[in-house]
Design a protein that fits this description.
53 residues; mainly alpha; flat
Length: 53
């Protein structure tokens, strides 16, 4: 890995995602719903149930 690449930790990724949602004007309670949906999709993918993106 060179100086131009950085692998984000889970905490860094979530912080950037939350910041992006705030900048985009997404209200906090909607952001929580979006994060919960993403977590559910991740769990379903790990279980082999989710066939989507």
């Amino acid at each position: 890995m060179d100086a131009y690449h950085h692998v984000l930790t889970k905490d860094e990724y979530l912080s950037l995602l939350c910041a992006w949602m705030r900048v985009a004007g997404i209200e906090d309670h909607h952001a929580v719903t979006i994060l919960r949906a993403l977590a559910l999709i991740r769990e379903l993918k790990e279980m082999g149930v989710w066939q989507g993106f």
